[in-house]
UniProtKB/TrEMBL annotation:
Keywords, in A-Z order: Lipid metabolism, Membrane, Oxidoreductase, Transmembrane, Transmembrane helix
Subcellular location: Endomembrane system
Organism whose genome encodes this protein: Flavobacterium aquicola
Keyword set includes Lipid biosynthesis: no
GO BP term, example: lipid biosynthetic process
Ranges where the Fatty acid hydroxylase domain occurs: 136-285
Name of the protein: Fatty acid hydroxylase family protein
Transmembrane segments: 12-30, 58-80, 101-119, 182-200
């Protein structure tokens, strides 16, 4: 899919408007309540207190345990067949563990050193915002920003190879959910946006968003198709209609990881949403079929070395013809479906 600059500008304009909606809602809330906050966001609302244990451990081991347990269930059900080979296993494990060791110092430095320098004396200035106001402010800011980060990595040729690792896996599941080039992860734009909002005093809503978003995105990558009953039973169809347009589900996100878009099911040129699928609905990048692709990954995948996938371009692949090797370019497919390039080596079309 060629990059349509007119559509891009229109969608960016709409996004800027969407970013302002939570701010406007918070303003109206205070106008209607004569400037008085009915509740503080510094503590969970009473009806959410039962989730406190989840919040307490989510940053340390909560999500890791959830991902591992779900992965064990997938393996027990034989959902990976024989595709989790030694090389694929190494890539998935390194991509899962390394960021959890290397990212915290980066984000801590940003929060404790960079932000106080860039915006001094603004710490906790948003602590007056009600819990749900902070939740929607961060949920929209975080997820809409990630939608754009994700979309541009599919539509801009230079950026594609930083995201390509995530699409190289020929399977779906917990094993590959964290499979990303480290540079793609380090520059996750929404990480720093959320860190900034936390510094401004929205820490608890940010944590709540993290919990909700993590469960949705892990569930969307899972090979356990939890959404199938909603499509099977007619009485659940109204719920399915809302659900698949609101959040990412296995059906919509698996389609994004398909190795082809020619079967009417795969849609790697869209379905970019992470927590909310709503963005794809709004911007016309979504495809809902309620079906699952027959195969995943990229057709030109050559099972590159873990260091090339995780740390390209610091390390290059030594496999001939790999898009991660020296002198090989990955360029987007034109609207007519032809691969455009000026390089003499083997090319890989960008999944745009």
């Amino acid at each position: 899919m060629a990059l349509d600059k007119t559509k891009l500008k229109r969608d960016l304009g709409i996004s800027l408007f969407i970013y302002t909606l939570p701010v406007l809602a918070i303003y109206l809330y205070f106008k209607l309540n004569n400037g008085i906050a009915a509740e503080s966001h510094l503590t969970l609302p009473s009806y959410l207190e039962f989730l406190q244990p989840v919040f307490t451990n989510i940053r340390s081991w909560g999500l890791i345990v959830f991902a591992i347990v779900l992965g064990i269930i997938e393996f027990g059900a034989g959902l990976y067949d024989d595709q989790w080979t030694g090389r694929e296993r190494k890539i998935d494990i390194i991509c899962f563990l390394a960021p959890k060791l290397l990212l915290p110092p980066v984000t801590a430095y940003f929060s404790l050193t960079v932000l106080p320098y860039l915006i001094p004396n603004l710490a906790n200035t948003l602590s007056w915002v009600p819990f749900w106001g902070g939740f929607f402010l961060i949920a929209i800011a975080d997820d809409l920003t990630q939608y754009w980060y994700h979309r541009l990595h599919h539509q801009v040729p230079f950026l594609w190879r930083f995201h390509r690792t995530h699409h190289s896996a020929p399977y779906m599941g917990m094993a590959m959910a964290s499979r990303q080039n480290f540079i793609y992860t380090v520059f996750f734009s929404q990480i720093y946006l959320t860190a900034t909002l936390t510094y401004l005093g929205l820490g608890l809503p940010a944590l709540f968003v993290l919990v909700v978003k993590s469960f949705i995105t892990l569930g969307a990558h899972s090979s356990l198709a939890w959404d199938k009953p909603f499509y099977k039973y007619r009485i659940l169809h109204p719920i399915a209609w809302v659900l698949e347009r609101l959040i990412s589900t296995p059906a919509t996100h698996h389609a994004h990881h398909a190795d082809t878009s020619g079967d009417g099911v795969g849609h790697f040129k869209g379905n970019f949403g992470n927590m909310f699928f709503l963005w794809d609905v709004m911007f016309g990048t979504g495809l809902i079929t309620r079906k699952f692709p027959e195969s995943y990954g990229t057709k030109t995948y050559k099972s590159e070395e873990w260091q090339a996938q995780f740390l390209w371009p610091i390390f290059k692949s030594k496999i001939e013809g790999s898009p991660l090797a020296d002198g090989v370019l990955s360029l987007p497919v034109s609207q007519k479906g032809e691969t455009v390039s000026t390089n003499k080596n083997i090319y890989e079309p960008v999944q745009s």
